[in-house]
Write a structure and sequence with these properties.
This protein has 314 residues and is α+β, with helices and mostly antiparallel strands. It is built from 15 helices and 5 strands. Strands 1-5-4-3-2 form a 5-stranded antiparallel β-sheet. It starts with a strand and ends in a 20-residue tail after the last helix. The relative contact order is 0.13.
Length: 314
């Protein structure tokens, strides 16, 4: 496998004065701390993925965080046939092209939340297939169980990643997932409906590279025609794959309540009510939701939590 030489990644001039936390920005691409495809800490980011040119691994390092791009000492190396493709997109991945919003008439709670997380950018991976796999797995289950199932799937089907990183794995390849029978996934805890959605996205993986060049709204419309791919899955995926700060995961269990409580002091909300309250922030609705959630504006909780009943045997 080819190794791409280390290269210093230049910043975008229009963003030179913007303070960015690479640690927080790049954490959006990791599905839990035990994600076998992605690692991130205070000074480095490593990710193995598929590209139009084949598999590749990107390794980004920096010396200061948060910092402006010019002062972060950011550099990158890549391995594998897809290494050049990944290097070309380091700036987008790190959120260099994301412009922090200004809402002069924002409610105080929104202004405070955005200010608290002003150094977090929306980066764009360009890898819709990779980003969507763990989101499909997370449909209708708890975050903890979704992380475990994603790790199991990559252990079973993911190949070793290009480069020197021990234990790093690629996500399952489209060829591996496309025609795998639904019953195969059951020991991992993945029932037939989610298994078929994984099959479906794998079968159109080649088309996703062309789709990623389209506007977010057009991609969402095309994905919505796929069985098992709904608004929540689409919204969650486009936020990272395209770096879309307006992407809203409609259908989430928590977000409508979080928004209703933070913006209207209503302990419970619906998707329609959430969208109504977020309308003044159109263009940045996903960023507002993310900032409110991370700022601890969750709605009051009532009643016991529903237990998880796994399909697999421990």
């Amino acid at each position: 496998m080819k190794q791409t030489p280390a290269s210093t990644v230049p910043g975008t001039p229009s963003c030179e004065a913007v303070i960015t936390s690479l640690r927080h920005t790049l954490a959006a691409f990791q599905t839990g701390r035990f994600d076998l495809t992605t690692r991130v800490n205070d000074r480095e980011f490593i990710r193995a993925s598929y590209t139009p040119d084949g598999p590749g691994t990107i390794h980004i390092t920096w010396s200061a965080d948060p910092a402006t791009t010019a002062r972060a000492g950011r550099s990158a190396m890549a391995w594998g046939p897809g290494g050049d493709w990944l290097l070309d997109r380091v700036g987008s991945l790190c959120g260099d092209h994301d412009t922090p919003p200004v809402f002069p008439d924002a409610q105080p709670v929104v202004a405070a939340a955005l200010q608290a997380y002003r150094t977090t950018r929306f980066g764009a991976s360009g890898t819709i297939y990779h980003d969507m796999l763990p989101v499909i797995i997370a449909q209708r289950i708890t975050a903890g169980e979704a992380m475990r199932q994603w790790s199991r799937l990559c252990t079973e089907l993911g190949e070793s990643a290009p480069g020197p990183f021990e234990g790093l794995r690629l996500p399952p390849s489209p060829e591996t997932l496309a025609n795998r029978p639904a019953w195969w996934f059951h020991p991992l805890g993945i029932e037939t409906k989610r298994a078929r959605a994984l099959n479906q996205i794998a079968r159109i993986a080649d088309r996703l590279w062309q789709w990623s060049e389209l506007p977010s709204e057009q991609i969402a419309q095309r994905l919505a025609h796929l069985p098992g791919i709904g608004a929540w899955t689409i919204g969650s995926t486009l936020a990272t794959a395209l770096g879309d700060p307006d992407s809203v995961p409609v259908g989430d269990f928590h977000f409508p309540n979080t928004v209703a409580w933070a913006l209207a002091k209503e302990p419970r909300g619906t998707d329609d009510r959430m969208l109504e309250l977020l309308e003044p922030y159109r263009g940045q609705r996903g960023r507002v939701i993310n900032a409110l959630g991370r700022s601890g504006h969750g709605a009051p909780r009532f009643g016991p939590r529903k237990p998880v009943l796994p399909m697999h045997r421990w």
